[in-house]
Specification:
Mean pLDDT: 89
Strand content: under 5%
Number of strands: 3
Radius of gyration: 22 Å
Distance between the termini: 29 Å
Shape: globular
Strand order of the largest sheet: 1-2-3
Low-confidence stretches: 381-389
Largest sheet: 3 strands, antiparallel
Structural class: mainly alpha
């Protein structure tokens, strides 16, 4: 008993410094996700894509993510920021491997090369590249401090963001570079970007939109946007570009207030109902109430992340939390917007709810970083050892 007591005391001390509630909320969201996927499997929805392996893999990924978050929380985030040269090249290498013939896998019905084929399983490198970007960009901003508004430093910050964005664009990826740009702008703003640059950016938006539409956008990009803006095109493309969102809206409508239940209902099915359009399944089975509760859970997680940012001892910790918050928040806004036909379909999952090992694991890594900020908010505290003084 005497040997166990020090370990027990240390464990209690360790847990007290962690935001256990944040982790428990994430685990609750994952448990809900697994149950939804189990329901789909039992109901025989899209059996070509959804099987017993789908929900078991989601469960295993959530468990792995929880362990990863606890480990990361035990390492000082400042130490993690110093070792960017270890994990960033790995994230970049995984992304660049998508260009190797036979390793990069295209998303169905598009030119996007999102998935890396590693034989027994596939991963989406953009999810991990986004987390690496949050860490390196927070470090870059922290080291610059007030000098970030100097032209040369702001140019370097833009180049910093354009490297991962450029890689994703070359892979014909649509959702990930949009998300990364939102994270980039949010972190810049939180770090104290001068208003003159914000106004200049707003002025440049029309030119950027013109370049996107006339230079980069393919037919499917344009139609995905047009079906959101034009009711006539929605009717015209109801069997093609608007079909998925049309079915998603029908599924939400069929759920009513309380939903049809998770088992034995008269379900509407669609492509990607287990990942990008899982919110439609929530509405169909659990109704409007289920949708609101799901969004409240995600919103509470976002608020907890921001709260931890407010407790950070320095700007580095605050910016890491802002980056993690941006990841959760923008994923949710875009995903729900897709299902409600308010935003184009760009292949963005609902965080912790959609099926997807890469997305789930990346979110847990981000949560681990936030927990590290919370745990190491005292200047002289170290998770794994005590200062002599």
């Amino acid at each position: 008993m005497e040997r166990i007591r020090p370990l027990l005391d240390y464990t209690i001390k360790y847990l007290k410094r962690l935001d256990v509630l944040l982790l428990l909320m994430c685990m609750t969201a994952s448990a809900f996700s697994v149950y939804l996927l189990y329901s789909m499997n039992v109901n025989g929805i899209n059996p070509s894509y959804i099987s017993r392996r789908t929900w078991i893999l989601q469960l295993a990924t959530a468990g792995t993510g929880t362990v990863a978050a606890l480990v990361i929380a035990g390492i000082n985030y400042k130490t993690l920021s110093k070792f960017w040269f270890l994990y960033t090249p790995v994230a970049l290498l995984l992304s660049l491997m998508l260009f190797i013939p036979g390793m990069g896998m295209r998303t169905e019905n598009s030119e996007e090369i999102n998935w890396l084929n590693l034989g027994a399983f596939q991963i989406q490198p953009s999810e991990f590249l986004t987390i690496a970007f949050i860490m390196t960009f927070a470090t870059h901003l922290y080291r610059l401090g007030g000098r970030m508004n100097e032209i040369k430093h702001l140019a370097l910050l833009c180049i910093h963001a354009m490297v991962p964005v450029g890689i994703m664009v070359l892979q014909k990826n649509t959702g990930s570079p949009i998300l990364l740009l939102f994270i980039f702008v949010t972190m810049l703003f939180a770090a104290g970007l001068a208003w003159r640059y914000i106004l200049a950016g707003l002025v440049a938006i029309p030119g950027i939109v013109w370049l996107f539409w006339n230079v980069y956008a393919k037919e499917y990009h344009k139609f995905r946007i047009l079906v959101v803006l034009d009711k006539a095109i929605q009717e015209q493309e109801i069997q093609r570009y608007f079909n998925q969102q049309y079915l998603g809206l029908m599924a939400l409508d069929s759920g009513g207030l309380n939903g049809q239940g998770l088992f034995g209902g008269d379900y509407i099915t669609m492509f990607a109902i287990h990942n990008d359009f899982v919110f439609a399944y929530v509405g169909m089975t659990l109704g409007f109430i289920g949708c609101i509760l799901t969004l409240l859970l995600i919103l509470t997680i976002c608020i907890k992340i921001l709260t931890n940012g407010g407790l950070a001892k320095d700007n580095l910790g605050r910016l890491i939390c802002i980056g993690a918050f941006s990841t959760m928040f923008y994923h949710t806004i875009i995903n729900v917007g897709m299902v409600l036909a308010l935003t184009p379909v760009v292949g963005v999952p609902l965080p912790l709810i959609s099926a997807g090992g890469s997305s789930t694991l990346a979110i847990y890594i981000a949560v681990g970083l936030v927990m590290s900020v919370r745990a190491h908010r005292e200047k002289k505290y170290h998770m794994f050892y005590e200062d002599d003084d």
